[in-house]
Amino acid sequence: MTADLNFKGPRLVPFDLLAERTSSFCDVVARTQPQLLPAARGPASSADLAPTATTIVALTTADGVVMAGDRRATMGSLIAQRDIQKVFAADEFSAVGIAGSAGLAIEVVKLFRVELEHYEKIEGAPLTLDGKANRLAVLIRGNLGLALQGFVVIPLFAGWDAECGRGRIFSYDATGGCYEETGFHSVGSGSVFARGALKKLYRPDFTVSKGVQAAVQALFDAADDDSATGGPDLARQIYPVVVTVTQAGVARVGEADLAKVTNLVVASRQRRPDGPEAKLA
Question: Which one, 89, 140, 167, 230, has least CB within 10 Å?
Answer without folding.
Answer: 89
